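FAQ: What does a ligand-bound record look like?

Like this one, built around calcium ion:
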Amino acid sequence: MARTVLVVEDEPKILDVVRDYLVDAGFSVTTAADGPAALASARAVAPDLVVLDLGLPGLDGIDVARELHRRSQVPIIMLTARGSEVDRVLGLELGADDYLVKPFSPRELVARVRAVLRRSGGSAAGDDHGPIRVGDVTVDPSRRTVAVAGRPVDLTATEFELLAHLARQPGRVFTRSQLLDAIHGVAIESYDRAIDAHVKNIRRKLEPDPHRPRYVVTVHGVGYRFADTEG
Ligand code: CA
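The answer part, i.e. the structure of the complex:
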């Protein structure tokens, strides 16, 4: 089944080109030209990915991204007219997965869309209970087991949820508050620092050298990600 991409862009020429390239690449494409229309479309079609222009009339791209992520983990690729906006776009309170600065090559956009979908594969498909394998780490959500290079690792329920959430999207950076959301119900009393404590425990059990983590990596000032490449 074709993956659905929602493209949000108020400049008709860019919208047309992006849509044409994505359709040619085999995606099913829905479009919107402003923020409210984007949110309505997202609700109606539940896209697998959103390509979102930062500079929209009215409700801007930042607000739209925030609103989208309030309801789902849909991956977002931001389009921005200014390189100087990039820090803000990737400032992960916003949670964009990738970005392109205009003018960009539509071919490059298609490549990025594919890459982000590949990275987010498991979770975008919903409840995928098959084992998650990243490098030599295996996380099996149905059995609730974790192994590193075949060696079983014993995690608490909260640690397991946290690790599974990170490992489902290797390379993606999560803020502490996103990780708190991910373990909702398990750690109601928790605040951001509780995430640090859980991560510390996970590292102690998982990492060959907990002081130089290979798997669960700190992103300073932001949060954590599961390493997608060998560091
Ligand atoms: Ca614009």
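Follow-up question: can I read anything off the structure? Yes, for example: Residues 10-11, 53, 55-56 surround calcium ion (CB under 6 Å).
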